[in-house]
Amino acid sequence: MAGSTVKRWLAVALFACVGISQVHAQGFVGVRLKEIARAEGVQDNALIGYGLVVGLSGSGDSSRNHATMQSVANTLSHFGVNVTTDDLNSRNVAAVMVTTTLPAFAEPGQKLDVSVASVGDARSLSGGTLLLAPLDGPDGQVYALAQGAISVGGYKVQSFGSVEQKNHPTAGLVPDGATVQRSAPLGALGTTGSINVILYQPDFTTATRVAQALQRSLPGVQAAAVHAGKVVVHFNQPSGSVVQAISAIENVTVEPDQVARVVVNERTGTVVSGGDVRLASVTISQGDLRVSIKTNYLVSQPDGIYVDPSRNIQTAVVPESKIKVNEDDARMVNL
After folding, report:
1. What's the pLDDT band for 156 if we cut at 50, 70, 90?
2. Is the distance from CB of 38 to CB of 200 less than 8 angstroms?
3. Which of 22, 83, 177, 285 could bridge to 87 as Cys pair (CB 3.0-4.6 Å)?
4. DSSP per residue, 160-192
5. Terminal C-alpha separation, the chain
6. How far apart, in whole angstroms, are the C-alpha atoms of residue 267 and residue 187?
7. What's the average model confidence in pLDDT over 6-31?
8. What pLDDT does 311 receive?
9. What's the pTM value of the predicted model, to 2 decimals?
10. What are the boundaries of each domain within the chain?
């Protein structure tokens, strides 16, 4: 059964190789330069902040996390409620780190999705609400403010030592949870009469083709490949026409060089093949490993012994775990 499955995967891969090779033989149309490159200075920026998640149903940080208790006390003092960390004993609050990505050209008022992850011993963030948290950039400036209800794609339920968990309930997402307060920082765009084009996938052949396509498609433009990931473009445009120059550059059609590659997803069994792929004799090995753990709780109560909790004589509950590992022999198929 496993051998037929592997053969079916390879058949799909070979069919894809033949189809893509025929496309190359008929002539590749090419893609716009904006699909494979960007202008230098146009980039996203990472933002990070610290905040509190409230409204948890006893699944937040414990009192052992002094930083969380101190944060709660500081937040309450802002509203005129003076308490100390010794007065707080609640697991309805969790300390979290908040992260997001500030896109290039972002302006104040724009909404961003933010990710929230616990930094304490909280069991789950499900049902919680993130309080107002400033998000800083690498330069220490506040670029956005985050707040809102958290969406968690998992759960964790435990009782008397039994645990049932799906995904990671200590991390979540706040859709449109951040509002941009400061414009995104932007590098220089052609202030000296030149623009640097940065390839997403550095390749010497592709960089050379980009320079040639720019000189061929745009009159008066001089382009040269500096290295595999950078092309310098010199243009004779007024300083106020930088946007128009970038627009003309990014719409130039280029044929990027293709790398022969086959990708196999071992989880789903999907095979994806690129062009110019040649498959020689190959041996495929497939195995399986299953681990199961089962815990039973046994009550130990010897006969003839009087139970007296005051003398530390009481019934004992002893957990007994059974671990079973089943590893099938690896199957090998030669093609």
Report:
1. low
2. yes
3. 83
4. TTEEEEES-TTEEEEEEEEEE-SPPP----STT
5. 15
6. 42
7. 51
8. 67
9. 0.64
10. 31-42+187-254, 45-180, 267-334
